[in-house]
């Protein structure tokens, strides 16, 4: 959510701006190094209606890998839009540190999904359109252990642009397609536009948090070369009363799909694919594995 993103620098000195961007990048790497971050993502299992058994045994519908995982740790039953958990005896399945009980699980569409801990694994439900899946993270994931940091373009204050925000009509939406091909209609608060290289560039925004922040999913001509082919993300603070908004592309960052094949990232809508080279922010990440 936008509320978890470090704040963008305001109109400050070049040196202070560089220090703020550098601090933001350090925090970004710290989050990626978390045992529950995107580098720890090791599985995504789409459920089918009815029962899905999970555990270490290969006969399960969901096979889990890790030390101390029971052959059958539990069952997920998807029915009438809900998923019910039935832990198996002796499986050491926990929620918030307490032994898990039979219950209906919340998914990420409900806000905060129910987190299931099983040994070194942490799992929760994700809802994507009409589909429901179990997302699995491993605190001992090889990608997490191999991570040595990110590469970014040099900090360039000219890419900290003062843009203008144009509110959309009430109830306006925009079509977003994720990397799995699932389309959704998402609310859009409006459009951010800025001038660069003698032209005007426009980006449709998504809500970035309860504080009025904006989330920009954009593509540019560096995609597939210096940067990830699926575009990048950028959060801004809420627009000012006069409609101005700081869009600091030095804070543009890679979507989770860069770090794991099990993420379900939204792709830039067609309106947000710019015929402009944005040489700022994170470069393409290549795993050392």
Report on the structure:
Helix content is 8%, strand content 35%. The strands form 5 sheets. Strands 1-11-10-9-6-7 form a 6-stranded antiparallel β-sheet, with no helix packed on it. It has a 5-stranded mixed β-sheet with strand order 3-2-4-5-8, with no helix packed on it. Strands 16-15-12-20 form a 4-stranded antiparallel β-sheet, with no helix packed on it. The protein has helices spanning 14-32, 142-146, and strands at 41-46, 50-55, 62-63, 74-79, 82-87, 93-95, 98-99, 103-105, 116-118, 121-128, 131-138, 160-167, 173-177, 183-187, 190-196, 199-204, 206-207, 214-218, 232-236, 244-248. A hairpin with a 6-residue loop joins strand 17 (206-207) and strand 18 (214-218). It has 289 residues and is mainly beta. The protein is globular and about 65 Å long. Mean pLDDT is 94; it is low at 1-8.
List keywords for this structure.
five-stranded mixed beta sheet, mainly beta, six-stranded antiparallel beta sheet, 20 strands, 289 residues, globular, disordered N terminus, 2 helices, single chain
Q: Could you write a compact summary of the structure shown?
A:
The chain has 289 residues and is mainly beta.
Q: What is this structure's SSE topology?
A:
Layout: H1 14-32, E1 41-46, E2 50-55, E3 62-63, E4 74-79, E5 82-87, E6 93-95, E7 98-99, E8 103-105, E9 116-118, E10 121-128, E11 131-138, H2 142-146, E12 160-167, E13 173-177, E14 183-187, E15 190-196, E16 199-204, E17 206-207, E18 214-218, E19 232-236, E20 244-248
Parallel strand pairs: 2-3
Antiparallel strand pairs: 1-11, 2-4, 4-5, 5-8, 6-7, 6-9, 9-10, 10-11, 12-15, 12-20, 13-14, 15-16, 17-18, 18-19
């Amino acid at each position: 959510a936008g509320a978890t993103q470090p704040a963008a620098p305001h109109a400050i000195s070049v040196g202070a701006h560089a220090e703020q961007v550098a601090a933001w990048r350090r925090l970004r790497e710290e989050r990626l190094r978390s045992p529950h971050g995107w580098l720890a993502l090791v599985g995504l299992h789409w459920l089918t209606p009815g029962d899905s058994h999970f555990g270490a045994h290969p006969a399960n519908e969901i096979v889990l890998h890790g030390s101390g995982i029971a052959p059958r740790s539990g069952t997920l039953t998807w029915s009438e839009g809900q998923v019910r958990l039935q832990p198996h005896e002796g499986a050491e399945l926990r929620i918030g540190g307490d032994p898990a009980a039979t219950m209906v699980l919340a998914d990420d569409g409900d806000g905060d999904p129910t987190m299931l801990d099983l040994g070194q694994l942490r799992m929760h439900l994700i809802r994507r359109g009409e589909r429901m899946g179990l997302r699995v993270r491993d605190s001992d994931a090889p990608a997490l252990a191999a991570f040595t940091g990110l590469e970014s373009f040099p900090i360039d204050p000219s890419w900290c642009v003062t843009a203008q925000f144009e509110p959309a009509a009430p109830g306006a939406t925009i079509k977003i397609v994720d990397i799995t091909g699932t389309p959704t209609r998402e609310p859009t608060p409006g459009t951010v536009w800025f001038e660069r290289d003698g032209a005007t560039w426009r980006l449709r925004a998504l809500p970035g948090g309860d504080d009025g922040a904006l989330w920009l999913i954009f593509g540019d001509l560096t995609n597939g070369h210096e940067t990830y082919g699926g575009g990048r993300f950028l959060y801004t603070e809420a627009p000012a009363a006069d409609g101005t908004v700081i869009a600091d592309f030095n804070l543009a960052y890679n979507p989770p799909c860069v770090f794991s094949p099990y993420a379900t990232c939204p792709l830039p809508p067609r309106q947000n694919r710019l015929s402009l080279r944005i040489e700022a922010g994170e470069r393409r990440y290549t795993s050392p594995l």
